[in-house]
Amino acid sequence: TAKGQVVYSISEGMEHGAAGGDIAKDLGIDAATLSARKFRMITGSSKQYFNINASTGILTVNEPIDREQLCELKSACLLNYELVLENPLELYRMEFRVLDVNDNSPSFSLSEYHINMPEFLSPGARFTLPSAQDLDEGTNSVQNYTLSPDEHFSLEMQIRGDGSNYPELVLKKALDREQQATHRLVLTAKDGGDPPKSGDVSVVVTVLDTNDNAPEFEHSVYRASVLENSPSGTLVVQVHATDLDEGPNGEIRYSFSNTTSAELQRMFFIHPHTGEVTVNGVLAVQRPLLEMLIEARDNGAFAMSSTAKLLVEITDVNNHGPEITITSLSSPIPEDAVPGTVIALLSILDKDPGENGKVTCQIPDNLPFQLKPSLENYYSLVTSGLLDRELISGYNITITATDLGSPSITAQKTLWVQISDVNDNPPVFGAETFDVFVEENNPLGAFLYQVSASDLDMSENGRISYTLRNSTVAGSALGSFLSVSSTNGSIYAKRAFDFEQLRSFHFQVEAKDNGSPALSAAITVNVYISDQNDNAPTILYPISQNGSVAVEVVPRLADEDYLVTKVVADDEDNAENAWLSFHLAHSSDSTLFHLAPHSGELRTTRSMRSTDFLKHKVVVVVRDHGDPPLSSTVTVGILLADTLPQVLPDFDDSGVPQPLLNATNIYLIASLACVSCIFAVFLLFLAIARLCRCRSRCCGCCCGSADDYKRYCYSVHMLPSSHLPPDMLEVTGVGKLTHTYLYRASVGLG
C-alpha cells in the first residue's frame, strides 16, 4: 500500500466467495464506517469480479477470473478499481494483478506436421518446425522443445529477428529414400509450470528426390501499420521471397502459415503470387500489435518452404470524446482553505487507446483553483491560492477536457463553488528575516530593533501583539538576553554581549492577532555582535615563569641570520583587532639582533664574534591593530654558549653588560681630548718662554759686572726618565729638547 493505492495479487480461477484481502485494514479504514460513508467500487470492466463486505471490509471474489480470456496475450494482467468514500471525501485506487496459473498445456495447431526432404541434402540442413501455443504466460508458457530420438535428426532452437525462439529440425545424417522413405518423429513442447505440462505433435518426414533450394524471404520479420478503420482491400505490406531453382521449382506461392490463427486469416488476405497483404474485413481487435507467420512455398514436385514473421500495428483512430464525471463536490468551502484543499473529484475517461485516449484537462487561468492528476483517469480540483469572500463570494468553474487525437475532441462541464467567511488574514511582516548588528559591551536596556507587522483584518482581528518565541541562546533562555514590547515590537538587550563568548545568534518574534481562532506570523531576527579591541595579545612562547626571563641558548660563533627564537602570540579579538605585529622595544646590542615584524622570528644580524658579550637581553613588544591598539611584552635572555650550562646565569639589568661606546661616552671622550690638547699646548708654550728667559740671564752672568754675581743660570736637560734620579735634574748648560718624556727637575747653585 502506498499513497492511497493498494495492490493485490489474485490467482486466476479463485472460486466465488474466496477472500482476496482485508481492504479496510490495508487502507487503514474503519470497517464499521464503510456503509455510513457510502462506499462504492468503480471499475471500467464489464464484469464485477470483486465485492467488499460492508460490515467487515473483507474483499471477496465475486466471479472466477480466467486470465487468458481477460487479458489474452498481455504479459501483465491488471484490473483497476477505485474505492470512493464520502464524509470526508476520499479516493483509493485498488489494482489487482491476476497471477497466471498453469492451467493450459502447450498445443500445436495441427495434429500432424509433414515435411518433405530431398534425399540429396547434406547434414546440417535445417527445417522450421511448428511452434506450440500456450495461453499461460511467463514461466507457465512454453519453455523448451524435445524431439524423439532419431539417428538422422536433431532439434535446435533458433532466434528470430524480434527475439522470439522457434524450433528447427536439423539433419545430422544423410537420408536414403531407398532404405527409408518416411521418418516419424514426435515433437514435444513443455512449459515451466510446477508440475510442468506438455503437448505433442507428430512430425512426418517424407524423403524426396529433387528441388534442393527453398525460398528465402528478404526479411525474417516484416513490420507494418494500418488504421483501425481501414476499408477492405487496403494494402498493408508486400512480402517477397526468392528461390534459386528454375522452372516450377522456383515459382513461389505465398500463404499464411498454419500456426497463424483463423481470426487473423479472416481479417487479412495475402495474394498467393504477389505477396501483397491486404485488409479483408473489420479490424475489430483489442490488441494494438498483431503477429502472423507467412509461408513461401515453391511449386516443385517436392516443394520447399520458408517462413517470415509479419507484425502489424493497428493505429487507433480518434473516434471517442472525453467523458467528464463529477464523483464528489464540496461546496461551500471556507475562505481560509489552505492551498491544496480538495474541492471536487473528477473522473475523465476516453475510450480510445494510445495518444487518442490521452486527455489534457484545464480550467481558466484567472481562478484560484487548479486541477491535479490524482489516480489514473482521475483529477482533483484543489485551491491554488487564498480565497477572500469579501471580494468574491462564489466561482463558476468550467472544466475543459481535450484528447490528444487528430483532430482532437473536447468536452466541458461547469461547477458552482460558494465561499464562506472566516478570519482569514494573518499578520504579515515586511520580510522573513532581518539582520541586527550590535557592538559588544553594550549598555543594559539598549534598543536593538523594532519589528512591525500589518494585518488586513479590522478591529480585534487586526490588533497585533508581539512575543518572543521560546528558544535558547548559548544554553540560556532567550528571555535572559532580550525583551520585546508587546505593543510596538521594540526589542531591547537585557545584558551586555561579549564577542569572544557569543558572536551571533538568531531568534523569532511572533505577531498574533486577536481573532478567533487567532492567526500569527513570525520573523527571524539575526543578531551579529561586532568586536571591540578589549583583549591584549597573549604571548604563548617564550614564556616567562614567576617573573623570570626566558632564556635562549645560541652557539658562541653563530652565523648571520641564525634563528634565535620565534615569538608566538594570539589575540582573542577578531579581524584587525587580532592582527599582530612584533617589535624590538630594547636590545642590549642593537647591532646584533633583528626581529621580523610579521612572523616574530628573532635572528642574528651578523655572525657572532669572540669579542661579543656572552649575555644579552632583548624586550619584544607584540601589538595588535585595534583602535586604540593593545600590546604585550616579553623579555628574552640570550646566552652565547656552545653547550647548555647546568645552571643558567642571571639576566637582571645589573648583570647584563652595557656597551662601552654609546653616544654620550663618545661626546665625553672628545671633550676630554680637546681639553687635554689645549692644556698640553699651554704647558709647551710656558716651557719655551721660561727657557728663553734663562738663556738671556746666563749671558749676562758671564759678561756682566760683579753686581750680577749672585744671579743664577738655569738650564734644563730633557732625558728619558729612566736615565735620571727620581728627584734630581742635572744642570749642564743649554739642553736640547728631542722627544716627549716624563719631566722631573731640581735646582742647584753654580
UniProtKB/TrEMBL annotation:
Transmembrane segments: 666-688
InterPro entries: Cadherin-like_dom, Cadherin-like_sf, Cadherin_C, Cadherin_CS, Cadherin_N, Protocadherin/Cadherin-CA
Name under which the protein is recorded: Protocadherin alpha-C1
KW Signal (keyword) present: yes
Subcellular localization: Cell membrane
Function: Potential calcium-dependent cell-adhesion protein. May be involved in the establishment and maintenance of specific neuronal connections in the brain.
One biological process term in Gene Ontology: homophilic cell adhesion via plasma membrane adhesion molecules
Broad class of where this protein is predominantly found: membrane
Topological type in the membrane: Single-pass type I membrane protein
